[in-house]
Amino acid sequence: xxxxxxxxxxxxxxxxxxxxxxxxxxxxxxxxxxxxxxxxxxxxxxxxxxxxxxxxxxxxxxxxxxxxxxxxxxxxxxxxxxxxxxxxxxxxxxxxxxxxxxxxxxxxxxxxxxxxxxxxxxxxxxxxxxxxxxxxxxxxxxxxxxxxxxxxxxxxxxxxxxxxxxxxxxxxxxxxxxxxxxxxxxxxxxxxxxxxxxxxxxxxxxxxxxxxxxxxxxxxxxxxxxxxxxxxxxxxxxxxxxxxxxxxxxxxxxxxxxxxxxxxxxxxxxxxxxxxxxxxxxxxxxxxxxx
Amino acid sequence: xxxxxxxxxxxxxxxxxxxxxxxxxxxxxxxxxxxxxxxxxxxxxxxxxxxxxxxxxxxxxxxxxxxxxxxxxxxxxxxxxxxxxxxxxxxxxxxxxxxxxxxxxxxxxxxxxxxxxxxxxxxxxxxxxxxxxxxxxxxxxxxxxxxxxxxxxxxxxxxxxxxxxxxxxxxxxxxxxxxxxxxxxxxxxxxxxxxxxxxxxxxxxxxxxxxxxxxxxxxxxxxxxxxxxxxxxxxxxxxxxxxxxxxxxxxxxxxxxxxxxxxxxxxxxxxxxxxxxxxxxxxxxxxxxxxxxxxxxxxxxxxxxxxxxxxxxxxxxxxxxxxxxxxxxxxxxxxxxxxxxxxxxxxxxxxxxxxxxxxxxxxxxxxxxxxxxxxxxxxxxxxxxxxxxxxxxxxxxxxxxxxxxxxxxxxxxxxxxxxxxxxxxxxxxxxxxxxxxxxxxxxxxxxxxxxxxxxxxxxxxxxxxxxxxxxxxxxxxxxxxxxxxxxxxxxxxxxxxxxxxxxxxxxxxxxxxxxxxxxxxxxxxxxxxxxxxxxxxxxxxxxxxxxxxxxxxxxxxxxxxxxxxxxxxxxxxxxxxxxxxxxxxxxxxxxxxxxxxxxxxxxxxxxxxxxxxxxxxxxxxxx
Lengths: 291, 623
Description:
The complex is a heterodimer of chains A (291) and B (623). Chain A has 291 residues and is mainly α. Chain A has 10 helices and 2 strands, in the order H-H-H-H-E-E-H-H-H-H-H-H.
């Protein structure tokens, strides 16, 4: 159905999806940019964040506490994972890094499946944002509206950390040249640990705030992971603004195409990625430099 | 060549052993309660993995998108056999394979624009497109989520009798035969010049291009080979199950292939087969025998992570390391005697052999008789940094030119522009009268102009001899040739050229030592050897003496002198005494410009040069 109302509502849905993808992708891209490591377990972390929130929600009955618990849990989880496994892989070839994070993602997914089965789980939206809201004749679920705000705040927080703090300065310098940062007497490996934690936290946060929109299942991370790849390729690897721009573009492409024919939404997304690759192999906002 | 001979002997052993194992399997495995379907499945995964191992293990390109080609080959064959009424099963499989290879070529053109992690991400995304395309736009042909049931099994008409393969052990001979052909071809590819170059690309793509190989072309070749194997395996999957499942296109398929290859051992060709066997038997064992149900995959994931952390080369690699370890432990004492003997023999042969004259290289174009290198107005600016400005530079045939200059004078940038690694902002480079400005580093090397690097760029996991073979192959075969089925040792002229280069750089006794075990000075000599082995008519050496001890310097200067016989060379170095001894003329660069040019004696006495180096305090220090 092609009409104005439908278009507006899909445009808006695209914004929600896009903001979410932007948040998850920025975690992936910061980790990649700083550590030089593509985290194939990132999708699994998104999923794990959702489940952590689900557990916390049923323990406390408070959505806000669930979000807080899931976010902190993922921060700790990310740091532990970095200490226990990832840090042994900085000096190993790219392929080994891909293999180990791929293996870790299977471990995470299957552990969740073991405890929660393959059945989907749901987390209701907080009561404050339940119900629907009508805007100019278009009806939206209120939580989706709120979600844009929530994700925007999270992205802003990430932006402030990256661009307004000492840590962020080091991280951005690390993206340019981590060896140089190391030579300047900054313990770059401690920064790596924190960055991995922040990346995991961003994915986990996205996982729990998204839980009221899409029900949770152990395999949900895989599809998201592939989409974040597309986002990162479109936006430019290692670029935070690129992840945001790429996320919004990807969200809108998926949403607007499904208005016409849902079957083609992902095909269009990948077609867009192909175009970017042909005309701008480094992505829209990607810089020359790190390969 | 001794090496060639041992290669030959070993080659037939591996193939005969494989044939023997494949024939014995149906008689032996039933005693171990192996289900024929599981064995068949292992063969299909093993075949799928052979191509992937060439791509990942040998060429170093980790693709997470092989499902695209597996599915394509499978569905093309299945469509022909079930929907289009095409009666010939074997021909349908081959068509499926060819289509997969063509698709692989097109995808490769796109995906190989990037390297490393970017490449892995793009292959994932592209494979995902295939999944969605199969499910939606093409569902009328592919059956969408239902797949294509009723794929027939092959039969073979022998003239007097028709053999019908059906399923289980009856289908096994057919699959085993296809696998055998697959592995035989793969071994030939791996041992061909193409295979050697693929390994070089894995080790150091930059140098592989610099010695004159079309790296992009060879990468694409590996990608297409992998796609073809995947296509054939996909077709066999349909035949084996009498049904072509849509999940062949899923990311899980690619992931399972990657994991199996890593478990079994990469760059072994048999790794994927071993990995698949471990995977499928583990699945059976954990799921049914231990009753773990779906949790088996968690166990597998943990096992896989531990394997990647501790056993990097997989199961086969682990056994190989253990074998060498045990052998070296057991044979420490006799080995020493043996090496001593070998060393003796090597010196003996070296003493006997008179050094070959360097073969006359590509003839200079007849019409041309000017300077070998002529550079006019060469300029390179990086933003505000003026690395080189307006350089005029001429070198004559047979000359040995030295270039000196303080750090940051733009010497290395100048060399990089000459070999076309860096393109100038303006200016022109004529080599043997030909304008080479803007060509690629590979093409320039093919024309006969190459350099040795300031920082070693070697193929680190290969031996000295293998390093030189890579370089010599580029000169003997041109920048791109698909002689995938001929053996490296059969390349005409290769042996002489490699042996000769070994002698020139004095590494004959170290020929079969891996680069990682060489001393620094030896690595430096190999670095020069890599450039020499492509028999350049103009050789550039970027600080060949850097980091050497005084003793090594003396030897290397001697070596460079002997190399310079009948060659044109340009040498950059900071060691002025050595350079003044070697070079006939010296060019001094300062702040990106030519300061002065002349004979060593003129340069020594030149006030401007002293000023440049010593910043005006030259009166107090005698140069």
